[in-house]
């Protein structure tokens, strides 16, 4: 955005008219972020923008704030304001994260944070049709795409259906492992979508502030009529969005 002296080479002020100046500036910044600057690039400072467009710092702050709310810009304390990467649009279907990212031309990566055999909470025991106090496999993984942290997954898996699961490589596609090693294809699932605030650990792993909003998906999946997994995933809301096809059933 110009050399060190560019702040003094500003254009005439924004015109008075039916559109408030913060709206005019917002649309200028939208075009800058969408068409000119690459993802992760710094936008000019509030002071530079105020000088360039002949508006107050308050007007600049309001325009930037609206684009931050939309997810087009992000503020980083002590560093400035930056463009964000476009959200990945997830068409809801029963597919693995690895498959989904590869289909989009992105490089998936999985970091295995923990994998143990333990007694699941009662809700999971019911979902997996386990007896009380019967252990299950618990996986804790960080999922990345092109090096960016995208999701944190905490999942429970049925040990009777997937014996010895913890002895396999759990940093690749789990659904591929189920298919190749166990001869299982996940056939159906029930997924609940909600919003939640990031706790300290999840925020650290995803590179966001504690307390910021995340998209949360809880999925119970079955294979050959038996429940296999009860997994909850926390996704960055600024990098992910969900699209669902809705069809109205005929009136009865």
Automatic annotation (TrEMBL):
Segments for region (Disordered): 1-20
Source species: Saccharopolyspora rhizosphaerae
Protein name, as recorded: GntR family transcriptional regulator
Xref: CDD domains: WHTH_GntR (cd07377)
Top-rank taxon, per record: Bacteria
Biological-process GO terms, alphabetical: negative regulation of DNA-templated transcription
Pfam family for this entry, one: GntR
Residue ranges of every copy of the HTH gntR-type domain listed in the record: 19-86
Keywords per UniProt: DNA-binding, Transcription, Transcription regulation
Keyword Transcription regulation: yes
Gene Ontology MF term list: DNA binding; DNA-binding transcription factor activity
The keyword DNA-binding appears for this protein: yes
